[in-house]
Structures are given as structure tokens and as C-alpha cells.
Amino acid sequence: MDTRISRLVEEICPGIIVIRHDLHKHPEIGLKEYRTAAVIETFLDDIGVTHRRCTETGVVAEIGRGNGHVVALRADIDALEMPDLSGLPYASVHEGLCHACGHDGHTAVLLGTAWVLRKLEHELAGTVKLIFQPDEEGGTGADTMIRQRVLGDPAPEAIFALHGWPDIPLGKVGYRFGPAMASVNSFRIIVRGKGTHGAMPHAGVDPVTIAARIIGGIQLVRSRMTDPLSPFVVTVGTVHGGTAVNIIPDEVTLGGTIRTLDPATQRAVHGMLARMAEGTARASGGEAEFAILDDFPPTINEDRSTALVRDVISDTLGPENAVEIKTSAMGGEDFSFFLRKVPGSFFMLGVGGSIPIHNTSYDFDDRALPVGIRIMSEIAVRFIGCGLK
To answer: Model pTM greater than 0.90?
Structure first.
């Protein structure tokens, strides 16, 4: 099967590269990927694959003969709100929008996979569900598709997705057992005091100094209140308050992000941060209101699914090109919402290079496309054959 898949990948890749360049040139942010969805649908129509919309800009397709195992493959399709400074012939024509995370490459890989699987459909005694998901960057796409029953009728037994990864050399693919990406929780702390003249601080309660103490105290949660072997990150990214240099304001608002790798640590850290903020404010005569603004779970790979990914990489590319990733990334990925519902694995496609993702000059390397298509196609074919062992 791998030999046939390789030949099919070689045949389709020139056309897939053209599609990726077109997607890169016309990036669209989350929930506004109307043109991107139309490109996906046109390609699927051309190769005779049935599809439907799930959310306004999400697309779901199915390939196979049914009456067997069901597996889902997912690609994210949205871009970032940042300029494209790559200088490429196919650089973004939309000012302030850019495919700097490589979702154009992910989409192109899944389209190429659809073409390969369509050619092999007569042998697929099961169903492959292809999920083209909007708004990964905004964190709402996967959850919204799930709420609109993307995982139903037929329900997949497992789900897989990839991400282009510059830290892994081109031609290699990384896999990881267990936590792959962190949970992401935004938080807000409103610190309330009593405004007064800057020359008479004793007449009020200064929320600015309280906020500064809270920022320092937050770091004690990391260094003194949690197990040092349980990774997490807390960052205060915004501080807003005051209108003039000689006025102590009534309140200051802090905003930040929390990254953890398991649900128990996630819950514990939320409680510790709330107590730290509220207690520090009370000790200084003020008040603090701590709030978690979203619920974005960690991306935790299931062992049997990850073993399948590992074996496919090793058998398809050679054992030397299967890279076990030893540490989790503290970035977030909303594929985690799918993994809360269905076993699966999120793996890293090596794209090499020195430019990181979310950089204004980043571009997904076209040479990684055939590797991604081969691995995704082989995962689908093997799963249809035997499911999870």
C-alpha cells in the first residue's frame, strides 16, 4: 500500500503546491474563511467527494465504503492577524493577515490526502471523515464544530491531526505520548482601591501598588506553591489603569495567560491564583476580583493512537525519521477539544528552517507536503484496516 500511496502523492503534489500558494496569498482569519472554504469545496467537488458545511466556514467530507472502522483527520484553515513580510511571490495580498502558523500547509496536506484516499476508496471498507476546521487561532472552531455534531453520524473511533514544526528537520515527523500541548486559560484581575490625589496617597487605597504586589505574588505560585516537576506558566501580559500621572485611580485591571499540562494542575493553579490576588488586595486595604475567561484544555495524546502514528512514520519514512518528542510544548491547540471526546493523536510534521511559526516571514515549506500527505493517508488506510489495537 505504501508504494501505491507514494506514487499517488508524487502525482498530486504539483497541484497541491499551487493550492497552498493560493491559500497563502489569500489568508482569512477565524470564522471569516469564506474563500478558503470555497477553495476546499471546489477541490472536493472536482474529485467527487461528498461534503457539507459544519459552522459557516467549516467543511466536513467523507470517503470510504462504510460498514467498518471510522477515523477522522483534521486540518485547521484560518490565518493570523499579522503582516506578511516574507517577500514571496505568493505573499499575502490582504493587509494585516498572514498564514504565519502554516495552516495553509495543513489544509493543503488534507486536500492531498483526500485525493489519495479517493483513488483508493474502493479498498476502504470503512469511513474516513475529513474535518477542515475554522478558527483554531481564536480557540472556538473545534468546540463549535463539536457542538454542531461534527463527531456524529458516523462517529469516529479516533482522530488525528498534524502541525508543521520548524524545530523538527524536513523529512522527519515527531510524535509524543501523553501531554503534547498546554491548556490555555486567559485570566483577568480587577484590583479596586480608592482614588485620590497622587500627592496624598494616605487619603486613598492605591490599586497600582496592590497590582504590583499581586504580579510579584503570582510568581510565588509557580516557585513555592506547586510541585516543581509539574510544568506550568503564568504570564501577566496587560496592566491597565489610571488617567493622569498625579492621580491614584480607583482600579487597575491585569490580564494574562495560564498554561498547564494536566487538568488537575489546571484546577489547582486557578484556585491558588485567585487566593493570592484576593488575599494580597485585602491585606493592603483593597479588593481583587479574579476571573477565568475561557476553558481551553490541554492536548493529551492517547497511547494507542500515538503508537499507530509512530509505527506509520517509522514504516513509511524509516525509523531514523520517526522522532519521539520528549517534552511538551506550552503553546495551546484547540485540537484538544476533539481529544476530550475521541481518542487520537496530534503530531508534528518537520518543516525545518530557522524562522519560527507566528513570525511575519514564516512560510510552510512545500517539500513537507508530500511527507504529510503520505503519513496522513497511511494512518487512514491502516486504521480502516484494523482500528486501534
So the answer is: yes
3-state secondary structure of 330: coil
Confidence of residue 229 (pLDDT cuts 50, 70, 90): confident
Report which of 74, 72, 76 is spatially closest to residue 57, judged by C-alpha positions. 76
pLDDT-based confidence at residue 173 (cuts at 50, 70, 90): very high
Residue 244's H or E segment, with its range, is: none
Mean pLDDT of the chain: 97
Q: Which residues contact 179 (CB under 8 A, 6 or more apart)?
A: 261, 262, 298, 299, 300, 301, 328
Long-range contacts, stretch 98-102, CB < 8 angstroms, 24+ apart: 98/27, 98/360, 98/362, 99/23, 99/24, 99/27, 99/363, 99/364, 100/357, 100/358, 100/359, 100/360, 100/362, 101/137, 101/357, 101/358, 101/362, 102/163, 102/164, 102/351, 102/357, 102/362, 102/364
What is the Cα–Cα distance from 100 to 362, expressed in whole angstroms?
5
Grid cell locating 97: 493577515
- What is the rounded CA–CA span in Å between residue 363 and residue 87? 10
